[in-house]
């Protein structure tokens, strides 16, 4: 990744994506399952906005437009890409989970929801 790509924001990345794939904002929206107004908002926003794009939609951009990596897209959105799920990791978490009391499990569930919400909103 070049220095320019590391410092670009989502609006700049979307402009490159539209040029590279010769697609409109409406086509991008259709392919990732969101509204054209959402893509337009991304294309007209700079870093520092109150709410960042939904991580699932950023992943969908990477899937639909594979010339742009998930890490590159998340960086442009000013977010860290969530780690990839693995069966081994899930099994480790379940083993640990089963060792917790019901009250501890509820507390961890609240914590995990809060972390997930922080990732979704970019805060």
UniProtKB/TrEMBL annotation:
Q: Do you know which Pfam families this protein is assigned to?
A: HTH_3
Under InterPro entries, the record lists:
Cro/C1-type_HTH, Lambda_DNA-bd_dom_sf
Gene3D superfamilies under this entry?
lambda repressor-like DNA-binding domains (1.10.260.40)
Q: Which residues form the HTH cro/C1-type domain?
A: 13-72
Name of this protein? Transcriptional regulator with XRE-family HTH domain
């Amino acid at each position: 990744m070049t220095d320019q790509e590391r410092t670009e924001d989502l609006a700049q990345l979307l402009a490159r994506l539209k040029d590279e794939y010769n697609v409109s904002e409406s086509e991008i929206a259709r392919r990732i399952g969101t509204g054209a107004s959402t893509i337009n908002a991304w294309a007209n926003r700079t870093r520092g906005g109150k709410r960042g794009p939904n991580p699932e939609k950023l992943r969908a951009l990477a899937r639909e437009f594979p010339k742009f990596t998930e890490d590159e897209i998340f960086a442009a959105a000013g977010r860290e890409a969530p780690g990839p799920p693995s069966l081994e990791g899930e099994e480790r978490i379940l083993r640990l989970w089963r060792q917790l009391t019901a009250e501890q499990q509820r507390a961890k569930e609240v914590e995990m929801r809060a972390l997930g919400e922080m990732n979704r909103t970019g805060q």
